[in-house]
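Homework help board

Subject: predicted structure for assignment chain

Our instructor gave us this sequence and asked us to write out the predicted structure in token form, then describe one feature. I got the tokens but I'm not sure how to describe them. Can anyone check?
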Amino acid sequence: MSLTNRTIVETGWLAKHLREDDIVVADCRYNLMDSSEGRKKYLSGHIPGAYFVDMETDLTGEKKEHGGRHPIPDKDDFSKKMSAIGVEKGKTVVAYDDDLSGASRLWWLLNYFGHDHVYVLNGGIGKWMEEGREISLELPVEMNSRFEPAVNHDLLFDVHTVRSSRSNVIVDSRAPERYAGKHEPIDFKAGHIPGAVNIFYRDAMNPEGKIKERDDLRKLYKNTGPSPVIYCGSGITSCVNILGMAVIGIEAKLYPGSWSDWISYPENDVETEAGS
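My token output:
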């Protein structure tokens, strides 16, 4: 199984296949500062047939001392949610949101749990609405499907493998000011993992909110090597960089706990623009 097999689909493709029985559409809109916003947006209008997937309750596991602000969800809990929205063998999932990161998180999680028939809707609901396509208020019925997980541990690095890594380029996906340690609006400590380079996840997107063209992505990721390790604040926006890399054939690893996990270990060093 490879992340590079299936990455993005365009709105025209989804419109053509939307009502086919083997298509599952997932609305992954969220706001880290307001956990209710994603659901409110979904209820005010969504792509017909789409199920809402909640970042905090469906795409995040139980928070503990370590593991970061958005740990990988429990296998059984995730399987229950995926079964309820109709995901099972033979089904193709199309995930969307309004900034690619929530959809990319679900895309990565489904690959991690062994279901690689999943795509991110390029341009998200913004592009869909801009094109004048149908929006619905109708809520789909809960399904009784059978999602069978098969965890692929090769897709991630944990804090221990990040510490010991010598050959993998480590990429920080946060905004430059957070990477530099100049501004930290969420976590209790500012800076970045020593040696990490900064590629802001939004730099993988064009002004329309779509993943950039392949030539632009090759330029963006030209110094990452064949198997970089990607992190952000808590393992969400980093998935956009992983998606962008997958589009051009780079098999990146996710550090799911990311910065919020790294700083939960007092012994871990940090760097800022001013130094260590």
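Reply (TA_rk): Your tokens look well-formed. For the description, you could write something like this. The chain has two domains: 8-152, 154-262. That's the kind of observation they're looking for.
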